[in-house]
Amino acid sequence: MKILSINNTADIYGASRCMERVFSRFAEDGHEVHAVLPEAGPLVALLETRGIHVHIHPALSIVDRAQLRSVKGCLRFLFQLPYSVLWLALLMVRERIDVVHANTVVVPSPSIAALLTGRPHVWHVRELLGEFGALWRPYQRLVYYLSDAVVAISHCTRDQFDPSLRGKVTVVYDGLAEEDSRVDAGHRDQLRGLAPEGSTLVGVVGRIKFHRKGQEVLVRAAGLLRKHHPDVRYFIVGSASPGNEDQVDRLKELMAEVGVEDIVTLVGERNDPASIFAALDIAVVPSVQPEPFGCVVMEAMAVGTPVIGSRCGGIAEQIIDGDSGLLFAPGDPAALAGSLDQMLRNPDLRRGMASNARQRVRTMFSLDGAYAAMARLFDSIGGRGIDMALRSVPR
Questions:
Q1: pTM > 0.85
Q2: What is the per-residue burial (b if ≥16 Cβ within 10 Å, else e) of 252-273?
Q3: pLDDT for the residue 12
Q4: Least confident residue range of 96-110, 119-133, 347-361
Q5: Which DSSP symbol is given to 353?
Q6: Rounded to whole angstroms, how far apart are CA atoms 105 and 157?
Q7: One-character DSSP codes across 82-108
Q8: What is the DSSP letter of 8?
Q9: Hey, which end of the chain has fewer CB within 10 Å, N or C?
Q10: pLDDT for 349
Q11: In angstroms, rounded to a whole number, what is the distance separating the alpha carbons of residues 159 and 178?
Q12: What is the pLDDT at residue 72?
């Protein structure tokens, strides 16, 4: 089978990693996999090392809120859309593609190109579109009617569709392979070495963004806890997205205001999530706004690090509160401090949750499971040559 997957960025982040993991498995099993990206970037080399053919399409039409706020941006999108459709249609015909897959809801041109060339099309919905407001009402119908199947990465992502449009929507959780949980002991120990010996390490991993990712919630919780847990150190791993560097400055100002500059460390970007989470004693996912899924939750659980996460979106679907982690009210530093206090006072609780978390990843969030679901979906919409993939995955 020949598969074409289109992504809206060449950066390596949650959605890109999940795309790479699943389609690398298709390539390993002998299928011919092509990917279209809008630019050169780190994802290109990663995909090519996995045997995936990469095509760069700089004019790929992407629904971008910032761009569509201006007349110039709207005109640019309207110009790019037909050109992008034509470009992709020619690629599909030239490469004799069997199945077309859009890895994000913000790239509409693959669906139209697939329709024009008679290819089955799968739209992968990895976003929560409530922030698009009234635009989501007509757009969800476009997604529905221009797809043979729609994949939602969580139940909360599926439930944003009108009930009358959920017939084509299948929930497929993203997954991890065993090798994704391999820890580099050197990287792990290097990170732990940034804190005083004997410290208990609590950390958050992700883009720094106020009122969204919630690093400010952890900073305030650290201030509430320092008197009762003086040996705890807090790591904030990640950076702001390009153009939003002021978010880091705001975070530093907050750390000074709360008085935690000596116990909170801004680590910056790191590219080895398994080793990062293995270095932590407790991982926190304090998102203020709902996450569609939140890959960092399963990445932490997979290496046996207990997670405290916001009770919202896909985070709450991954963590069983009190069993494989703890949940707290989004945006509430006092609630987060209470959950942290509960874990910090009870090492046996942490160990039990860590064991349960590992098992939950194996049963609910395995790459085998995600790959099997995608293979069967492709088979159901007429993907040719899929029997090879179906024989290699558990039923």
A1: yes
A2: eebbeebebeebbbbbeebebb
A3: 84
A4: 119-133
A5: H
A6: 11
A7: HHHHHHHHHHHHHHT-SEEEESSTT--
A8: S
A9: C
A10: 95
A11: 30
A12: 77
Question: Pairing relation of β-strands 149-152 and 169-171?
Answer: parallel
pLDDT range class, residue 66, cuts 50, 70, 90: low
Tell me the mean pLDDT in the region 6-24: 91
Asked if 260 contacts 235 with a C-beta cutoff of 8 angstroms, the reply is no
- Name the amino acid, one letter, at 392: S
Say how far residue 27 (Cα) sits from the centre of its chain. Answer: 21
Rounded to whole angstroms, how far apart are CA atoms 68 and 108? 14
Centre a 10 Å sphere on the Cβ of residue 43 and count the other Cβ atoms it contains: 23
Rg (CA), the chain: 22
Which of these ranges, 21-30, 67-76, 283-292, 341-350, has the smallest mean pLDDT? 67-76
Rounded Cα distance between 343 and 320, Å, is 15
**Euclidean distance between CA atoms 167 and 170, whole angstroms:** 8
Say yes or no to pLDDT of 383 above 70.
no
Six-digit token string for 230: 């003086």
d(CA 93, CA 91): 5
Residues 6+ apart with CB under 8 A from 278: 183, 188, 303, 304, 305
Residues 356-381: what's their mean pLDDT? 94
Query: Are 2-175+366-391 and 182-364 equal in CATH topology?
Result: yes
**Mean pLDDT across the stretch 293-320?**
95
Question: Position of tokens 């792990």?
Answer: 188
Chain segment 222-273, per-residue pLDDT in tens: 999 999 999 999 999 998 887 888 999 999 999 999 999 999 999 998 888 8
| 218: its two tokens | 């952890």
177 is written with which tokens?
Answer: 């392979």
Distance between CA 35 and CA 182 in Å, rounded?
A: 27
Topology of domain 2-175+366-391, CATH: Rossmann fold (3.40.50)
C-beta of residue 131 within 8 angstroms of C-beta of residue 158? no
**Hey, where are the domains in the chain?**
2-175+366-391, 182-364
SS3 268: strand
**pLDDT for the residue 32:** 96
Determine which helix (DSSP H) or strand (DSSP E) holds 347, and give its type and residue range. Answer: helix 347-364
Q: Which CATH architecture has domain 182-364?
A: 3-Layer(aba) Sandwich (3.40)
Torsion of the alpha carbons at 164, 167, 170 and 171, rounded to the nearest 10: 30
